[in-house]
Design goal:
- The protein is mainly alpha-helical and 202 residues long.
- The protein has two domains: 80 residues, HRDC domain (DNA polymerase, domain 1), CATH 1.10.150; 99 residues, HRDC domain (DNA polymerase, domain 1), CATH 1.10.150.
- It contains twelve helices and no strands.
Length: 202
C-alpha cells in the first residue's frame, strides 16, 4: 500500500478489497486465494479502463475467467465513478496488525505468540486433514495474536474469534490452540523454523 498515494487509487484498493472479502466469505476460503494483495495494488496504480486492460496486469492474467475479470473491473469502475468527496482521505488510520515479518522488531512477544499459534494451527489442521486456511483464516490468527483479549482465557478467545467472523465449529476447534499460544513466551518450540516455513500460510 505504500505505493498507493492518490485518493482515487486508494478508492480502487478499498473497492477491490471489499469485493474480495465478499467473494471469499461466500466461497469460504481465505481472501488471499481469491486475489492477492499485490494484484490489488497493481490495479490501483494502473486504474484500468476495461477488463482487457485489467487482464494485462500481474495477478489478473489467463487464470482469471471472464466473469471474475468483470467482477474486479466493476469494482475498479465504482472507484473511478466516485466523487471527490467520496474518496478516502489520506492519513486515515490503518487497522489490523503489521506484516508478520515486522513483528519481531515491533513486538517480539507477539511474534512468539504468532509462531506458537502457527505451529498449533498447522498441527491441528493436519490432524483434522484439512487446509489450514479452512480451519481458521490467517488474518484472524494474526489479529488475535497481535492484540489478544485480556485475560486470554477460553471464553475471551472464543469471543474474539467469533467477533472476527469465525464459525462456531472453527471457534470450538481453534480456541484451545490459541489459548495455549497466547500463553507462550517463545521458549516452547518457537525456534523460528515454523515462522519461516509457514509465514505465507498463516
Amino acid at each position: 500500500m505504500h505505493k498507493v498515494r492518490r485518493r482515487r487509487q486508494m478508492a480502487v484498493v478499498r473497492e477491490l478489497w471489499q469485493t474480495r472479502d465478499r467473494i471469499a466469505q461466500r466461497r469460504d476460503i481465505s481472501p488471499g486465494k481469491v486475489l492477492s494483495d499485490a494484484a490489488i495494488v497493481e490495479a490501483a496504480l494502473a486504474l484500468p479502463a476495461d477488463a482487457p486492460a485489467l487482464a494485462a496486469l500481474n495477478g489478473f492474467g489467463p487464470r482469471a475467467g471472464r466473469r471474475q475479470l468483470e467482477q474486479w473491473q466493476a469494482a475498479v469502475d465504482r472507484a473511478r465513478a466516485l466523487s471527490e468527496a467520496q474518496l478516502p482521505q489520506p492519513g486515515q488510520p490503518v487497522t489490523g496488525p503489521p506484516p508478520p515479518r515486522a513483528w519481531a522488531d515491533k513486538d517480539p512477544v507477539a511474534a512468539a505468540r504468532l509462531s506458537a499459534a502457527r505451529a498449533g494451527v498447522s498441527a491441528l489442521a493436519e490432524r483434522l486433514n484439512m487446509p489450514q486456511e479452512n480451519l481458521i483464516t490467517p488474518d484472524t490468527v494474526r489479529r488475535v495474536c497481535w492484540e489478544p483479549p485480556q485475560p486470554a482465557g477460553p471464553e475471551s478467545v472464543a469471543a474474539a474469534l467469533a467477533g472476527y467472523g469465525a464459525r462456531p465449529w472453527q471457534v470450538e476447534q481453534v480456541t484451545p490452540v490459541l489459548v495455549a499460544a497466547l500463553a507462550s513466551d517463545g521458549s516452547d518450540g518457537s525456534d523460528g523454523s515454523d515462522g519461516s516455513d509457514g509465514s505465507e500460510v498463516v
